[in-house]
């Protein structure tokens, strides 16, 4: 159905009684029973599921009003300009997700038979942790499947995706119907409950028995045994905090306008409550990491990472890439020996307020169109390279005007910007891409940031209780946004007068929260998905600005041609052709 029956290693398991598919040498064939005596082999099935987690930087900005790309053959560019179909879907996660679920389900069906360790207490803990990871990963993939493929069928039903919780063998019935959206949400929560029950909140070494969580102390009172399984050595594996974060992500998705339906009981209050669990664990409003907005460029912090430890901003991240310059090679301007792939839009630049907190279109902002980058929100200069910015190891001045005579100028060469802007976020300015002396630096890619969860709470709390309401919590949407803007350096000189002006207006606060989410999470692949779950305008053309001294010319760079049914992604056309129980979302053919 959704997989290629997953490699020869799994294919050998897919017959009842482990009958062989191929007639290879016995020593080259691995059977399911070998999991029971080889713990590393058993763990490998879960590790395979980790390897295909959807990318955090998926570059879907290319298909939004936040950016375009200068790579004219890019699949996301083509999707946004008219070629998105059920047979041509560059944002599909169908095959990789159901492939990962096969690994997870195979593991879960056999985990209790595995000899995890000679020490019986360690063996029990290993079994708990590995099953907890597997349940968590199953929930993770279901979340990404819903985000990409849930939607309304022609008869108006809000549907999710097929729920597969058992290994599908070669004899399985692959013609499985889609479950309701609500049933999928409940399955995600069920799996997250199982993950929570089997995992510590975070993987940390303990030095005393009373530091072992109660549910694990019932298994062992030996700190060495606990640390062996649940200690720092396991950092960056799925844990309880990640489970709670995915519960918050799932709840926010389900409460959003795109999924409002009588069959979906999720509320904004529930979404706020789930996000608050993570925020309370971090320490409430005061726990918002001070340097979280520049996580990618906190060079000293990044270079000091070791042993799987996390920066304060990170709930989950990928492994550190040492001496790496791949992102810079892709996104630096041509004069810094990059290919300038991500071109931020004027639309996004206009979304950054002035440093006094007022939107640029507000009469109190002091915005000067003749000097468009003066007095702006400090995040603009941190996240985007604009005309006159400095960048790179030598603080080179980047001129982006079409008359600048520079390779960095608009459309000067294939690697040049189309909008007048280059990406700065994600990148380290101390990387040197000069072919004569390439110098890479350490990087890491996030999977979940605390700031995302704070913003999720602000959005949900405002919808549930208004800007100043707190529900059962100690902070409001207003409190969160005030803290985020203060950290950014916005409104610090005037008490954030604009925020104070609108704090009693739910609709204006909604617009501000969405804008803060746009800015704080820009270039982290949220905008494409946020516009859809909000049912916001998908067809705002991406604009640019050609700055040549005092001559400033607005540009229309790329139109968007989405249709209304594209708020929801399609079920892959090949799957619908094969399985008549798999009903397509409305509008996709």
Automatic annotation (TrEMBL):
Signal peptide range: none
Gene Ontology, cellular component aspect: cell outer membrane
Keyword Membrane set for record: yes
Annotated InterPro entries: SusD-like_N, SusD_RagB_dom, TPR-like_helical_dom_sf
Domain of life: Bacteria
One family name in Pfam for this protein: SusD_RagB
Sequence ranges assigned to domain SusD-like N-terminal in this UniProt record: 59-205
Residue ranges annotated for the RagB/SusD domain, each copy included: 337-588
Alphabetical UniProt keywords: Cell outer membrane, Membrane, Signal
SUPFAM superfamilies in UniProt: TPR-like
Signal among keywords: yes
Subcellular location: Cell outer membrane
Location, primary (coarse class): membrane
Record-stated family: Belongs to the SusD family.
Annotated protein name in UniProt: RagB/SusD family nutrient uptake outer membrane protein
Organismal lineage: Bacteria, Pseudomonadati, Bacteroidota, Chitinophagia, Chitinophagales
């Amino acid at each position: 159905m959704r997989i290629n029956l997953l490699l020869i290693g799994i294919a050998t398991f897919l017959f009842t009684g482990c009958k062989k598919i191929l007639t290879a040498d016995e020593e080259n064939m691995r059977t399911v029973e070998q999991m029971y005596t080889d713990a590393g082999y058993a763990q490998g099935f879960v590790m395979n599921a980790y390897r295909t987690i959807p990318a955090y930087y998926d570059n879907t900005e290319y298909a939004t009003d936040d950016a375009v790309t200068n790579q004219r053959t890019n699949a996301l560019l083509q999707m946004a300009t008219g070629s998105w179909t059920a047979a041509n879907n560059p944002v599909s996660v169908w095959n990789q997700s159901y492939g990962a679920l096969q690994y997870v389900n195979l593991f879960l069906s056999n985990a209790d038979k595995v000899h995890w360790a000679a020490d019986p207490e360690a063996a029990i803990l290993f079994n708990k942790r590995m099953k907890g990871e597997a349940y968590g990963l199953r929930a993770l993939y279901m979340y990404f499947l819903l985000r990409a493929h849930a939607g309304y069928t022609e008869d108006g039903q809000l549907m999710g995706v097929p729920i597969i919780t058992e290994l599908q063998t070669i004899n399985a019935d692959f013609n499985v119907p889609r479950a309701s959206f609500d049933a999928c949400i409940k399955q995600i929560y069920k799996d997250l409950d199982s993950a929570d029950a089997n995992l510590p909140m975070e993987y940390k070494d303990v030095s005393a028995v009373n530091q072992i969580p109660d549910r694990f102390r019932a298994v062992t009172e030996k700190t060495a045994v606990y640390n062996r399984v649940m200690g720092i050595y396991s950092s960056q594996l799925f844990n309880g905090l990640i489970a709670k974060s995915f519960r918050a992500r799932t709840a926010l998705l389900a409460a959003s306008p795109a999924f409002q339906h009588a069959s979906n009981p999720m509320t904004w209050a529930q979404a706020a409550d789930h996000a608050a669990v993570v925020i309370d664990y971090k320490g409430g409003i005061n726990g918002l990491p001070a340097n979280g907005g520049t996580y990618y460029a906190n060079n000293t912090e990044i270079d000091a990472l070791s042993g799987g430890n996390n920066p304060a901003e990170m709930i989950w991240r990928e492994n550190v890439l040492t001496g790496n310059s791949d992102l810079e090679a892709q996104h630096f301007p041509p004069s810094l020996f990059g290919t300038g792939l991500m071109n931020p839009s004027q639309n996004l630049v206009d979304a950054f307020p002035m440093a006094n907190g007022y939107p640029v279109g507000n009469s109190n902002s002091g915005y000067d169109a003749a000097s468009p980058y003066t007095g702006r929100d400090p995040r603009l200069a941190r996240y985007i390279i604009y005309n006159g910015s400095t960048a790179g190891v030598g603080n080179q001045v980047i001129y982006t005007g079409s008359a600048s005579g520079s390779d960095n100028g608009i459309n000067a060469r294939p690697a040049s910007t189309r909008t007048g802007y280059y990406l700065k976020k994600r990148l380290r300015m101390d990387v040197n891409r000069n072919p004569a002396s390439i110098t890479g630096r350490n990087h890491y890619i996030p999977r979940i940031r605390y700031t995302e969860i704070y913003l999720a709470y602000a959005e949900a709390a405002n919808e549930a209780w208004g800007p100043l309401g707190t529900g059962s919590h100690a902070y409001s949407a207003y409190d969160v946004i005030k803290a985020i803007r203060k950290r950014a350096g916005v409104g610090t000189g005037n008490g954030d007068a604009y925020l104070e002006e609108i704090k009693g207006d739910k609709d204006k606060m909604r617009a501000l929260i969405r804008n803060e989410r746009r800015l704080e999470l820009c270039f982290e692949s949220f905008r494409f998905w946020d516009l859809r779950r909000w049912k916001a305008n998908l067809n705002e053309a991406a604009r640019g600005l050609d700055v040549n001294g005092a001559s400033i010319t607005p540009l229309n760079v790329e139109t968007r041609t989405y249709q209304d049914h594209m708020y929801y992604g399609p079920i892959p056309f090949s799957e619908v052709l094969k399985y008549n129980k798999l009903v397509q979302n409305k509008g996709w053919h």
